[in-house]
Specification:
This protein is mainly alpha-helical and about 110 residues long. The chain has a domain of about 55 residues. Helix 3 runs antiparallel to helix 4. The chain is rod-shaped.
Length: about 110
Amino acid sequence: MKLFLSVLLISAILPCTLQPQTSKPIPPGIRQADKLPGPADVPPLNQSQAAHPAAQTMREQARELSDLAQTIPEDVSRFNGGTLPKDMSEKLKRIEKLSKTLRSELSR
């Protein structure tokens, strides 16, 4: 009896698994869309192509920063002597601007 039930159960299940599955056809546009690049493959539109500045420009800025920084100890000595150098404030502002520019360019 068990054998009969097993054969009956297998004969009922087997044809269901062997039948081809009918599914909806996939439209041709979907296949073409699958081949297109996704959002991760496309670079952002607002990002510039030249992400890093020219090395020559950075060298010039670093050289100017160094030259200006070397004059500050002498200006401080003059200030301690009682005279304030006229361009010391502009030099310090320029040093600050150059250092911020170089720091932001290096952190990119």
